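Entry:
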Amino acid sequence: MKSYGKLVAALMAGWFVLAVTASAFHVFKNPQNRIGVAVAIAATVPIIVFSIWVAVSGGFRQFTLSLNPRALTFIQSWRVLGAVFVILEAYHVLPAVFALPAGYGDMTIGFTAPLAALLLAVPRRRASFIAWQLLGILDLVGAVGLGTTAGLLDPAGPPMVPMTVLPLSLIPTFAVPLLLILHLISIAQAKSWNAASTEVALGAALSQPESRRTFS
């Protein structure tokens, strides 16, 4: 497990450097305000790679399930910084069609993340925990979708150029896919809780004396 931890840390560092470098060379810049294909690719490729890795490697899958679900959920608190989108929209730097849904959605997830981590990350609240994680995914997917199509949805509004250059370009190309991956891991962990809790309950029932099981 430690080897996977070091490998994942190294890959994340490399991914971050690649995102910064590509942004520095204006790979994601979209001055024509068209559909942001480069940003969309950068946001989806890490998720695809992660999904394939989990599917083909039992060791990596076990590593992801061994992570602390409360810590993974608490990390989502950083999304309160979505307030920046709302502020930039107020100054007409970002289009409202993207900034308001993405900003308020991120703030909602960010503010509720500590509560979800402390109160919902337990087997008996598995359904609520998964529902919260799905809401977080919906917010991220919606933000990327609106961001890449904002030029078509609101051609008269401010362009999305600020989101395609440093430092904001790191949000869709690094932060969004990373946070979505954390949501996916948390959901997979919650599904394993159900199986684990069932096995524990069954084991406890089978360990009772025969007479107690018969008349209880």
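Residues 198-206 have pLDDT under 50 and may be disordered.
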